[in-house]
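Human: Here is a favour to ask of a fellow structure person. Comparing notes only helps if you start from a blank page. I am asking you to supply a protein in sequence and structure-token form. Write it directly below this note and I will take it from there.

Assistant:
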Amino acid sequence: MRFEPLSIDGAFLVRTEPRADPRGRFVRVYCEQAFAAVLPQPRAQAGGDGGHRWVQCNLSLTAHRGTVRGLHYQRAPAAETKLVRPVAGSVWDVIVDLRVGSPTYLRWQAVTLTAGDDTQVLIPEGVAHGFQALSDDAQLLYFHSHAYSPEHESGVRYDDPRLAIAWPLPVVHLSPRDAAFAPLDGRPEGVTA
């Protein structure tokens, strides 16, 4: 595995190296020893372990090209690190640093993730995540360091003028929850990871 730092402090593009033979392919998605070099050590958190211990794994399917999901994060004490990998289709994956005091506070970065390209994104606590499907039937596999906690979930509007994210396609589908997120200017600054 190769960890390439992204422009958001603590975020990485993780390139995995598959082994292939006439039968097919095998790829290691996670290795605790490899990730330990770039992630904080696990620490006790209410309801989870934090750090790089994965406690939940989820799979999302986005049916239509142009759909935007996000930008989502969980507040402390349920803040989570995420590892996101495409398993079908292609997405434009976006992360936004919401950590007050971070050197990259309120910056965003996007990377294109395509199934079969053997890349994934490591997203630290306090960084919001979202994506736009570049293909129909895009699927993402998520590893989370904290279990989903509805009372701690939050988000940032995909079209927040303070961020000015330049989505590559017209937005064709957005959930009511994502559309209802308040703009950053309308609430307290940042989050604490």
